[in-house]
Amino acid sequence: MTLRLFNTLSRTVEPFAPLAPPRVTLYTCGPTVWNYAHLGNFRTFVFEDVLRRYLEYSGYDVLHVMNLTDVDDRTINAARAAGVPLQAHTRPFAQAFFEDGDYLRIKPAHHYPAATAHVPQMVELVSRLLARGVAYRGDDGSVYFAIDRFPAYGRLSRVERRDLKAGARVSSDEYAKEDARDFVLWKAARPEDEAVGAAWDAPFGRGRPGWHLECSAMARHYLGDTLDIHAGGVDLVFPHHEDEIAQSEAATGRPFARFWLHGEHLLVAGTKMSKRYGNFLTARDLRDDGWDAAAVRYLFAATHYRKQLNFTDEALSAAAAGAQRLAEFRERLLSAPSAPPGRVADLARHIEQAFEARMDDDLDVAGAIGGIMTMVREVNAEIDLRGGMSVEERQTFLAALDRVTEVLQVVPAAEAVPEIEVTAGPMPAMEAALGGALPAGPGPGEDLRAWATRMAELRVACRRLRRWDRADLVRRLLEDQGFEVRDTRDGVRLVPGRRTPKGA
RNA sequence: GGCGCCGUAGCCAAGUGGUAAGGCAGAGGUCUGCAAAACCUCUAUUCGGCGGUUCGAAUCCGCCCGGCGCCUCCA
């Protein structure tokens, strides 16, 4: 059984094998750090994280590079608007990107090359293309790639030719091109660029790199001429990835990437999530609203990566409930009493086999979770039937469960939910409380948690005294403040109610 | 206009020729003083519509309807 992946180059699912096993070179297009990356961007990054983790699960040694685009029109415009140098503006957003990645449990890439730190590599690449005659200097001083000198142009996106709409506005730099379809490798410096330090000297003129250039130059610098896998969002297929192929292959004469993987868009109310439409949400929004990253990942995992996913609060809540069930199950597994061995070891084998079968089929994560959930039910039924499991069974199953969930990262951290637990201790003077009015919320100078703890103690006392009416009243007050009341064998546990986003 | 994708239960969704995974919600049950949580059971004769191919189709082909994406910055 081997991993099979949908390759955009062939538009078919192909068996995957790296050029030099066990090493797999993986290049993924990262964010443009002009602002916070939104959740749609992160859908792609999470997909790539699952890809990376599954390759590692499968025994490969992955070398992962993700670029940071820190010089382009948007970063320059934003820096100018803020009146600061380019990097003063981009650095905080790069930092925010890493924070969001940590929150979403994305495994860090081995390298995060920034475009501005690799200008020499890009200059070298442009020089090669000029020397080979596939690039030329336009009248405006910029350097362009001549796509009619690269016959394979269009192979990835299957765009034979870009038909400019009749009457479409042609931007000024279009006039400098020999062919309207040519794309810019190096943009001649403008005063606006100089103002924020976004211009560099080069043998072919002072300027800044075109967008596509950085990926070709940096991928080659860190991973060599030919990548095993290059991944990104579908919107990059054309022109970004098409242009990368043209630049790289024209320069090296070798295939640029063997597998091209593209993740589909995240939609909101049926439309692509985008800064431009204003319908976006950031990872930090979800974090600040109290959502566990596992819920977000579960939501993404529920839909295949090549299918559009419509984001809704309802879907996120449903995903959170599913993820929570996995956490509860894991807790139950840990605390199940000892019993003679049954069939749990068999189920452990099965959970991994089913997982691999689904994942090997072009990363069918949704199918993989279905298999895990089925095993959850089977093991629960075993615990119910036999009262527990053997120590060996527990270890075996837990190890298998952890191996598969390590790839998906859909199990909320056990300690993620701040709880209040009160057990029956020495009985304080409760007589008054058992009769008088009860505080419906925190008193002056008292925080919610202190009040809730006080009320929980009260409920324990009421229950011990069998004053069910008072115990019920206390529970209602706690529930009104958003706490879920769970009686335990010898006390009470309060769990903050499930959260919903304030707005999206 | 060109290229491509999608349409499966109340909601989300897997499944690409062999007779419908899974999750959420809902119903019943176990547990509980009552609850909550957890766990168990149940919930689509049917896969947008109409034709066709086939012993057999959600899965292949054609047409139609509905939705989305790319073709320009974009994950």
Folded structure, characterized:
This protein is of the alpha/beta class. The protein folds into three domains: 4-164 and 173-272, HUPs (Rossmann fold, 3-Layer(aba) Sandwich); 290-415, Isoleucyl-tRNA Synthetase, Domain 1 (Orthogonal Bundle); 419-496, no CATH class. Helices cover 43% and strands 14% of the residues. The chain is built from 15 helices and 16 strands. It has helices spanning 39-57, 73-82, 86-103, 119-131, 191-195, 211-223, 237-252, 283-288, 293-301, 313-335, 344-360, 365-386, 391-408, 448-464, 468-480, and strands at 4-7, 12-15, 23-28, 61-66, 135-137, 143-145, 183-188, 207-209, 227-233, 257-263, 266-268, 271-272, 309-311, 420-423, 483-488, 491-496. The chain has a four-stranded parallel β-sheet, with helices on both faces. A four-stranded antiparallel β-sheet has the order 5-6-7-8. A hairpin with a 4-residue loop joins strand 1 (4-7) and strand 2 (12-15). Helix 14 packs antiparallel against helix 15 (468-480). The longest helix is centred in the middle third of the chain and has 23 residues, at 313-335. The chain is elongated. The two termini are 42 Å apart. Mean pLDDT is 91; it is low at 162-172 and 499-504. It binds one RNA strand of 75 nucleotides through helix 1, helix 7, strand 12, helix 10 and helix 12.
